[in-house]
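REQUEST ID: PR-0412
SUBMITTED BY: lab tech R.K.
PRIORITY: routine
TASK: structure prediction, single protein chain
INPUT:
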Amino acid sequence: MTTIDRHIIIRFFTGIVYLTLALILFLIVLHYVEYIDDFFDRGATMKDVFLVYYLNYIPEIIRLTSPLAVFLSAVYLTSRLSQKLQIAALQTSGVSLYRIMLPFLFVGVIVSSFVFYFNGYIVPKTNKVVIDFEQKYLRGKQIKLDLHDVHRQNSPGSVIAVGYYDRFSKVANNVSIQDFENGQFLRARIDADRMVWVDSTETWRLEVVTARTFPSDSWPQIVHQDYLDTTLTVFPTDFARTEREVESMTIPEAESFIESLRRSGANNTGRTKVGFYNKFSYPFANLIVVLIAVPLASVRRKGGQAIQIGLGLLVSFLYLATIKVVEPFGYENSIPPSMAAWLPHVLFFALGMFLLIRARK
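STATUS: complete
OUTPUT:
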């Protein structure tokens, strides 16, 4: 690693840190000004707002703004080197643009790796606090819950119907478990007043149970029990799915949740799956923006750095807009959710490669 490489890495990384801190401060102030009335109207204290809510909101801001911070830092540093003719001098001495990009890519890989871990394992834990706080103190942030008349598939031919589910106590009321033969004939049915999740054994306990079986060669048989412990393929999260559930799950938890949705035969899972795949695709934006920023800012333009930064902001806006336009197609399953999560990044990776090929080497 040369002196120039170390110089670029230090300045690039320093710029990312400063821009991230500035974006955190800006977004917190903007959010606070917008929601201050809701906070106080619903009884939140200043301590709750700043030491609970915003302290846990910072990781989400870092995740969301990291590509912008990386992109602007890369544009600023590259344009500075270009305006001072340092890039031209290096190229004249035989150093190609590809070689100049190596320290930028090195930092991009480091940031992408960090954001992948951060997004997959740290942010979900803080998002749980943020979502619960917003539920309690912010109007218009209520999460849509599927709690009444819930139907889930336990296994092929087995269906669970719940009258009402309490997501906090993990108790289902007015429960009916029905087993069908060949998907048509009712073979057995279990009705219970309540079904309670037992954390220690990861099983369900049915209370005040009436079990009926319907043999083909005899009269129906009925058995009454005070309680019945049973293992189902449906878990508490399956009974109370939310639009933002996956935001508060680590990658292993989200993967398990997606599998449980598949087993239960749940519909309208596009948003959840897009959120899951975004945990993998979004961190790569930090590397892709480097491929775009360096070739874009390496060319001297009339107007200097102001033009370069303006172009950078425009590209950043287009990148974010493309993500927001494509994702809803995945929510509705118009395209596969995995494609909705990856397509914007693939398109801008192609743009970065095009700019790199067209740039003066």
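NOTES: Residues 32 and 39 are 9 Å apart (CA to CA).
REVIEWED BY: pending
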